[in-house]
Amino acid sequence: MNDKIAAPQSELPGAELDTALLRPDFLWGVSTSSYQIEGAAHEDGRGLSIWDVFCRQKGRIANGDTGDIACDHYHRYAEDIALMRDMGVRAYRFSTAWPRLLPRGRGAANEQGFAFYDRLIDRLLEARIEPWLCLYHWDLPQSLDDLGGWTNRDIAGWFADYAALVAQRYGDRVKHFATFNEPSVSTLFGYALGWNAPGIADKSSYYKAAHHLNLAHGAAVDAIRDLRPSALIGAIHNRQPVLPESGKPENAHAAALLDAHWNLLFPEPQSFAAYPALIAHEMEPSQKAGDMARICRRLDWFGVNHYSPIYARADAASQLGFAWGKPPASAQQTGAGWSIHPDAFRDVLIAAWRRYGLPIYVTENGSGGNDAPDATGAIADKARIDYLRAYTHAMGEAIRAGADIRGYFVWSLLDNFEWGAGFTNRFGLVHVDFKTLRRTPKASARWYAGLIRPTRKD
Ligand code: IFM
Known about the structure:
The chain has one domain (19-455): TIM Barrel, CATH 3.20.20. The protein is globular. Mean pLDDT is 95; it is low at 1-15. The strands form three sheets. Strands 1-2-3-4-5-7-10-11 form an eight-stranded parallel barrel, surrounded by six helices. Strands 6-8-9 form a three-stranded mixed beta sheet. Strands 12-13 form a two-stranded antiparallel ribbon. A hairpin with a 7-residue loop joins strand 8 and strand 9. The chain is α/β, with parallel strands linked by helices and 458 residues long. The chain has helices at residues 34-37, 50-55, 73-87, 98-101, 111-126, 142-145, 155-170, 183-192, 203-227, 251-264, 267-272, 280-283, 291-295, 342-356, 382-400, 443-452; strands at residues 27-31, 91-95, 130-136, 176-181, 232-238, 242-244, 301-305, 310-314, 322-324, 360-364, 405-411, 430-432, 439-441. It binds 5-hydroxymethyl-3,4-dihydroxypiperidine (IFM). 5-hydroxymethyl-3,4-dihydroxypiperidine is lined by residues 33, 36, 182, 305, 364, 411, 418, 427.
C-alpha cells in the first residue's frame, strides 16, 4: 500500500464500526459522477449536456464555475484508480455520460466515448476494483432536451436504447448496473424548482418528467436483462427523513408532502406499481393504461443515498405547497450546513430494508465543507472523519438490527463540481487543487483505508 495514503494506524482515530458485524464479502467503495469529475467536455466527440448549457446561464452556478475541466478525470483516470487501490476500496461507482456515448442522445454512437469507459473499466479490473455503472447522474444530452427532455414521453424509449448499448458494450465486465441516481433531485430541482438543469420551474412539467423517468427506469431494466440476464440491476434513491421546520403546525403536512416527493415518488412505483397517495392525483394526467406495470420491475439491490434529515415548511405561494425548511439552530452541522444525525441514517437503512426487501447498498454518504491544505500541504479534515466514523457506526447498528446491508460507498473519491455550489463545496477523500489538478489524499482517506484494512482479503 502507498505510504502517502496508508499512514500508521496509531496516527488515526480508531474506527468505531465493529467490522465483525459485516458480511465477509462486504463491499467498501467510493462514488463519483460523470459531469462532476470528467471534464473534457468538448473533446473526442462528446455532445453537449444540459449542464454545459445551464452552467453558462448567468447566476446559476457559484463563481460561474463549469464542469468543462472539473477534475480532468477523463485524462487522469489511471491516477484516480491508483488512489482508490491504495486506499483499498473494492468498488467504484461512476456514471456514464450519455452525451459522451451518444452525442445527440440517440442515433450515432461516439466510439471515442465508448473507448474511454473501456479503458476505465479495464484499468479498474486490473486494480481488482469492481466497476458499478450508473446510467444517469443528471447529464441529459442537450439535443434531447431540445425535444422536451424528460417531459417528452418518447424519452423512455431513448433511454432504454442507450441502456441497451451500454449493457451490450460493457456487460461482459460490469456486473452491477443502476438506472438512475437520485431521480427526486434531477426532477424536483430540475423541473419544479428550477435550481438544477434544465432550470424549469413548472409543476406540470415536473410531474410529466417524473412519470417519464419512471417509465424509462422500467424500460431500461428490461433492456439490460434481455441482453445481460446475469446483470445485477438496482436504482439509487435519496432516503432522508423529512422533518417539519419548527413553528407552525401546518409544517407537519408540508413535511409529509415533501416526503412523498423526495422519498417515495420513484421507489414506490418502481417496487409496488403505485404512486404515493398524497400526489397520485397529480400523476394521473401523464399516465396511460399499463404504465404502472411497465414501471414496476424486479430489482436485485436497492441503493440508498443519505447525508442528513431535511426540513420542510408550509408555503402557500409555492406551486407544490411546501418550501425547503431550516434545521433547528441547535443541530450540529457539516461545513456545508447539513445537519448531522447518524441515528437518522440507522433508521433510514432499517426502514428501506424492511420496505423494499432488497439487499441494501449505501451508494452515497459523506460530508461537505471547504477543506484547505495547511502550511505543510496536509488536509486535516477531522470533521469529515468524525462524520464518517459516526455514520459507519450507525450503519453497523442497522446491520445489528437485521438490515441486509452489503456495501458502503463514500461520496466522494475526489473534491468535484458540486452542481450549483460549483467548486466551493468539497466532499472528497482526496483534495483536488482545481488550478493545478493536483490530487492530495486528505486525512479522511487514511482513516477510510484504516477502516477497510481489517476486511481486506489481500
Ligand atoms: O454531489 C452530489 C451528488 O451528485 C448527488 N448526491 C449528493 C451529492 C452531494 O451533494
